[in-house]
Amino acid sequence: MSSRRVLYISQMGRQLYHLLGTIGILLVMLLWLSLLNPPRADHFVNSLAGPKHEYKIVLGVALLATVLALVASIRGSRWWCVGLALSSATLAFFTYRLSA
Q1: Were both Cys, which of 2, 51, 54, 59 would link to 45 (CB 3.0–4.6 Å)?
Q2: Which tens digit of pLDDT belongs to each residue from 55-65?
Q3: What does pTM read for this prediction?
Q4: CA–CA dist 31, 59 (Å, integer)
Q5: Angle separating helix axes 54-75 and 38-49, nearest 10 degrees
């Protein structure tokens, strides 16, 4: 009976890591989609943090997506390494773009 519980908890943990990876990829998609309509994205981020701190929100979201993809690639499955590469590239792109 207890082995069934352990197996169930183990399987739920894997699903949780897949969920975290999916959230990370959705955040990456949100960042890339914001490039399609920059004025609307700027207005949205300015309303959250103000014009002086908008870069903190963007870089924070990119960093969060990278961390979530890293956790998913370590604990979920090795296919999440592709998501980790995409998240890292997004973080690098937006860091470069905001520093220029």
Answers
A1: 54
A2: 888 889 999 99
A3: 0.78
A4: 10
A5: 100
